[in-house]
């Protein structure tokens, strides 16, 4: 973000093409005007005398009284295109040229006839008045055009500022607004190479040091009140919020003709308001993130304490029973208690694995090590892992034949499908089956896992993918950390797929237990592509 630079057309676009054309025309006129000012006296004095041969040609066809009109036209032209001072000089020179060549006696500036004297005096008076009025009109027109131009810039800036999301966006919008005057202004911000701008190079080292100190000011309410004084003292304008100085604008207003200072200051005020708005928005976002993190930690503790306590209590109870009453228990009772301990330990292991997987997803450490695997192999492994959980339910699978192999991280895909079926088992009534279908749909391999439970309302279907959703709802009737579907979605999205939830199409008529279906889509990968692909998310 250095000194003002770049191409002006990119700043304003086609809609405000005038915003680029007008400053170019104005710059061209200023160059011409500077050239004319440089040679003002020679032009003002000599031009009427050089025009005299043309005046002689006019007298061959028109009365001599029309000659002053030619000089008046010249005076008006100079007044419009240069300055009234040069027009007055030109009018005086025209007076003497007319007197020398056309007033009796000719070839002398002496005038003997009252008629010629009156004509010359009227000519001089008319030239001065017309020149002054023409110059004044030209200045007014240029002021109006400049105000229109500044209004266009202000409107465009006011359109950009509400869309600015951070301080950098606001500064860039201001930088673009200043592009037409890039040679006569420099926007000084932190980390810029602003010292290379011509306006800064002409400054002394002491003044450059002052600018650096102003840029590093830490603002307080008392210091903010002193900003107008500092602006006058150092000939800069501050861009700031209520905490710090964002930048300094040094602009040579004297070199930018007809710049309306009121509009310019209003523009700066709007920028400072936007800088404060973005600061407040950033602070609110930080507070929101901190609050969400706190809620997340609370949800995690609540979930872990609830989901770990139940199996731990069961394990402690079963183990203490075996220890205290082992001599009075028969083999079947002891085996049943040990099975209970094993089931609850496996349940704790699943919870722990879910938490570890969620941590990997949250910190972007999930490493995909893909290989080719068939759908049948994935489902077979998942069913083996689910066998201890299928006490009151069973799985009905329907895998379409001739499905292509998948190029996936097998363990992650197994974990994703396991989490969905595990969730379906928790919310399915006894003796209800879990339907697992797998088929190809275009360039996707689709898994649908449908249960016969109470279903999920449509407005809640997106929320179930949020971390600890179950814990946040305070649902203690079903075990679960609320991470299963979140982890499933993260793992599937890591493979370029997606997970959605819909109603069970086989149970549309059942209002009490409509069930739900989790749909997992994975892209089909050609066998010759990405054989050794490894990607990290």
How is this structure best described in words?
- With 537 residues, this protein is α+β, with helices and mostly antiparallel strands.
- The protein has 17 helices and twelve strands.
- The strands form four sheets. Strands 6-8-9-11-10 form a five-stranded mixed sheet, with helices on one face. A three-stranded antiparallel sheet has the order 1-3-2, sandwiched between helices.
- β2 and β3 form a beta hairpin.
- α4 (67-81) runs antiparallel to α5 (84-101) and α6 runs parallel beside α12.
- The longest helix is centred in the middle third of the chain and has 65 residues, at 261-325.
Rg computed from alpha carbons, rounded to a whole number of angstroms = 43 Å
Side by side, the strands of the main sheet go 6-8-9-11-10
Largest sheet: 5 strands, mixed
Helical amount:
55-70%
Shape call: elongated
User: Helix and strand string, N-terminal first?
Assistant: HHHHHHHEHHHHEEHHEEHEEHEEHHEEE
What is the residue-mean pLDDT, rounded to a whole number?
A: 77
Number of extended strands: 12
Q: Would you tell me the structural class of the helices and strands?
A: alpha+beta
Proportion of residues in extended strands: 5-15%
Distance from N terminus to C terminus (CA atoms, Å) equals 32 Å
Spans of at least 5 consecutive residues with low confidence: 1-20, 471-481, 528-537
């Amino acid at each position: 973000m250095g000194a003002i630079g770049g191409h002006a057309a990119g700043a304003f676009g086609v809609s405000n093409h005038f915003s680029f054309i007008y400053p170019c025309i104005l710059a061209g006129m200023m160059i011409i005007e500077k050239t004319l000012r440089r040679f003002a006296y020679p032009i003002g004095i000599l031009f009427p005398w050089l025009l005299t041969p043309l005046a002689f040609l006019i007298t061959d066809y028109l009365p001599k009284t029309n000659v002053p009109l030619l000089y008046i036209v010249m005076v008006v032209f100079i007044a419009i295109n240069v300055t009234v001072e040069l027009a007055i000089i030109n009018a005086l020179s025209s007076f003497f040229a007319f007197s020398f060549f056309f007033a009796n006696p000719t070839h002398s500036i002496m005038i003997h006839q009252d008629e010629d004297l009156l004509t010359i005096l009227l000519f001089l008076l008319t030239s001065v008045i017309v020149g002054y009025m023409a110059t004044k009109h030209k200045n007014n027109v240029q002021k109006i055009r400049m105000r229109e131009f500044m209004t266009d810039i202000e409107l465009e800036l006011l359109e950009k500022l509400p869309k600015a999301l951070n301080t950098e966006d606001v500064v860039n919008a201001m930088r673009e607004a200043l592009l037409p005057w890039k040679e006569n202004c420099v926007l000084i911000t932190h980390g810029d190479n602003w010292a290379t701008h011509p306006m800064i190079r002409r400054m002394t080292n002491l003044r450059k040091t002052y600018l650096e100190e102003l840029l590093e000011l830490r603002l307080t309410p008392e210091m903010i009140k002193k900003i107008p004084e500092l602006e006058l003292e150092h000939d800069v304008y501050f861009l700031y919020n209520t905490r710090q100085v964002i930048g300094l604008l040094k602009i040579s207003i004297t070199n930018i003709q007809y710049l309306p200072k009121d509009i310019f200051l209003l523009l700066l005020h709007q920028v400072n308001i936007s800088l404060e708005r973005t600061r407040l928005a950033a602070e609110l976002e930080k507070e929101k993130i901190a609050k969400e993190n706190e809620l997340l930690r609370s949800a995690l503790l609540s979930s872990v304490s609830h989901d770990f306590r139940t199996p731990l209590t069961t394990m402690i109870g079963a183990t203490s029973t075996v220890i205290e009453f082992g001599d009075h228990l028969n083999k079947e009772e002891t085996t049943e208690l040990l099975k209970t301990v094993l089931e609850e330990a496996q349940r704790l292991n699943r919870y722990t694995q879910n938490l570890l997987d969620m941590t990997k997803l949250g910190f972007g450490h999930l490493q995909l090590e893909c290989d080719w695997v068939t759908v049948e192999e994935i489902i077979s492994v998942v069913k083996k892992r689910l066998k201890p959980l299928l006490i009151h339910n069973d799985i009905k699978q329907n895998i379409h034949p001739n499905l292509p192999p998948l190029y996936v991280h097998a363990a992650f895909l197994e974990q994703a499908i396991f989490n969905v079926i595990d969730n379906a088992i928790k919310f399915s009534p006894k003796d209800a089956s879990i339907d697992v279908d797998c088929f190809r749909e275009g360039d996707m391999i689709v898994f649908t896992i449908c249960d016969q439970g109470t279903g999920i309302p449509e407005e809640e279907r997106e929320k179930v993918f949020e971390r600890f959703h179950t814990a946040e709802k305070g649902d203690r009737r079903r075990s679960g950390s609320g991470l299963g579907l979140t982890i499933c979605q993260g793992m599937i999205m890591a493979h370029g797929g997606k997970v959605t939830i819909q109603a069970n199409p086989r149970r549309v008529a059942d209002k009490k237990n409509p069930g739900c279906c989790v749909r997992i889509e994975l892209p089909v990968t050609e066998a010759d592509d990405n054989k050794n692909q490894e990607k990290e998310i």
